Amino acid sequence: MISVSDGLVCAGSVIEENEFTDALILKLDENADEIWKTIVINPDPENRAYFTEVVQTTDGNYVAAGEWEYSLPEFDEVNGSSNDDGWLVKFDAQTGDIIWDRKYHYIEDTNDEHEIYDLTACPDGGVAFTGEALDLTIGDDSDYEYPAQQGWIVKVDEHGCVVPNCQNSVDELEKERTHFIAGPNPVPAGQELHIYLHEHSSGGQFILTDTQGKEVKQFTAVSSSTTYSISTLGLSSGTYVLTLMKENELLQSQKIIIE
Fold first, then answer.
1. Which pTM does this prediction carry?
2. pLDDT given at position 139
3. Which CATH number fits domain 2-156: 1.25.40, 2.40.128, 2.20.70, 2.60.40?
4. 180-258 has which fold?
5. How far apart are CA 244 and CA 242, in angstroms?
6. Sign of the CA dihedral running 76, 216, 211, 256
């Protein structure tokens, strides 16, 4: 909850009949009367969505942070059946309408959970958040792959982008061949490569290969409007190819240079 010039803004969750939560943000006036309320509903009734933090940005609007959960039906109970992305949503201060909605995922294992603990508005209109990325392999601690728990800090611009220009929509003629944008390119040695999957895309398999065609990284992209971040630590300098595949079909490829 934050205090603003004309009242209060609260962010959290609401429990539905199925006992799972949907995300809630509401604005109250100085008398604690409701001005507007927005509930963001997870379309999967078996999964949750909730907010934990809210800030006011330099343009006077609000950004709420939390988690978005979704199912991974291809995995069994041993490997886990759900995934949690870090989640930011920007709301119009006057109406509560959604301005943008984006998710964030640091790749270590397919079944990860991303917690956002702190959210700060930045002078450039963007926000920064901190938290942790967890490997949620089901089982006792001995089953967790290293590193099972990592600190996580992310800075986004006023559009919620880690990869610049992720807010730009793709026209109808380009949708069949433009599914993602990646950056920075070149990637400084040992830093992260960020891949934004556009909202019109429905996921697939990302594969990073070297010039010899050897696979060096791969992960499944389940949710769209999501920034996936992968570390290049340990990869040699040179040219690589990032490919998005779905059902054995090549959707898009891009050359990536690691310095």
1. 0.90
2. 45
3. 2.40.128
4. Immunoglobulin-like (2.60.40)
5. 7
6. positive
